[in-house]
Amino acid sequence: MTALMENAALVFLGLASGLAVGSGLVAFLVVLDVIPRLAQITGSTKQGPALEMAVIAGALYWTAADFFEWRLWLPAWTPALLGIFVGGFVGTVAAALTEVLNVFPILARRLRMESFMSWLLAAMVLGKVLGSLFEWLVFRAQ
User: Fold this and answer.
1) Would you place residue 76 in the very low, low, confident or very high pLDDT band (cuts 50, 70, 90)?
2) Which range has the top average pLDDT, 29-33, 64-68, 106-110, 127-131?
3) Residues 6+ apart with CB under 8 A from 113
4) Quick one: average pLDDT of 45-65?
5) H helix runs in 32-133, sequence order
């Protein structure tokens, strides 16, 4: 019975985590208009729907690859080439976000926390670091 309870708790935590991350990603993409802004910066506004489908297809593919533990057998030089493309994508997304990411000052103003802005950012960074450390040192160590 204990193993059943543990498995039920793991299923619940997995689904809850997936919903939280998925909701955050969708909110990030929709509220901040990341994909349309990215298309505007790169001059590919006519391919907007294709960019959206690429994001959806990539999320679905890599979710399935992780879930079913698919492995890719590629030549040794492939990660370097893929790294160039990933770096370009991250750079363009970062450029798009610099224009739309007035979220933190607006959030601080609405919460009346302007004088605590550095504390707010530090708390977010610390939470991310501690969550990552927990993932790598505790959760994956089992």
Assistant:
1) confident
2) 64-68
3) 107, 119, 120
4) 86
5) 34-42, 48-67, 78-100, 103-110, 117-133
Tokens (6 digits) for 108: 């601080």
Residues 6+ apart with CB under 8 A from 38: 51, 92, 93, 96
Helix (H, G, I), strand (E, B) or coil at 34: helix
Q: How confident is the model at residue 68 (pLDDT cuts 50, 70, 90)?
A: very high
User: Mean of the pLDDT values across residues 82-105?
Assistant: 73
Question: How far is CA 31 from each of CA 23, 24, 34, 42, 60, rounded to the nearest angstrom?
Answer: 11, 10, 8, 20, 21
96 with 41: CB under 8 angstroms?
A: yes
Task: Tell me the backbone φ, ψ of residue 73, rounded to 5 degrees.
Answer: -105, 100
List of residues 6+ apart from 104 with CB closer than 8 A: 117, 120, 121
Distances (CA, A) of 131 to 2, 24, 36, 59, 139: 27, 16, 31, 22, 10
Tokens, residue 96 = 């798009």
Per residue in 97-117, pLDDT tens? 666 666 667 777 777 877 887
Quick one: tokens of 61?
Answer: 């593919």
